[in-house]
Write a structure and sequence with these properties.
alpha+beta, Aspartate Aminotransferase, domain 1, 5 helices, 6 strands, globular
């Protein structure tokens, strides 16, 4: 049996916080996601910022939204297919999949749309917390 080398065992390490996550990105993606982060924080000042599933996440009475950078795009994870359906027309300029919006640094999501989504997610979580919205 061969000994495993450090190179062969290389593990993917989760960033400690959102600043560390962003610092490891190419400039264009870092700038686009920093603007997204700013819009999320403006819409949800009480939300807790964290890293979950190795990507930036925001929690308020449960998870609100996530975002991440990939090789050819960035993603904004809305985590609500029902909200995505309600916003169908507004999301038509973007590629969507389930509860996710894909965008590029060259065509970022408008802050007004991000804030609208985050506020709607807050409302969903508040209603769920009160037992008025089923999962």
């Amino acid at each position: 049996m061969k000994k495993a080398t450090k190179k062969a065992i290389k593990k993917s390490v989760s960033p400690a916080d959102v600043d560390e996550y962003l610092s490891g990105l190419p400039t264009a993606q870092r700038r686009a996601l920093a603007k997204l982060r700013k819009a999320i924080k403006a819409a949800a000042p009480k939300a807790q910022e964290c890293i979950s599933w190795r990507m930036p996440a925001y929690k308020y009475l449960g998870f609100l939204v996530f975002f991440a950078a990939f090789k050819n795009h960035c993603s904004f994870f809305v985590a609500s297919t029902s909200l995505m359906k309600k916003l169908g027309k507004e999301l038509s300029p973007y590629e969507t999949s389930g509860g996710t919006i894909h965008f590029t640094p060259e065509k970022p999501l408008p802050a007004t749309l991000v804030k609208k989504i985050v506020k709607a997610r807050i409302k969903e979580n508040e209603l769920r917390k009160m037992g008025r919205l089923r999962k």
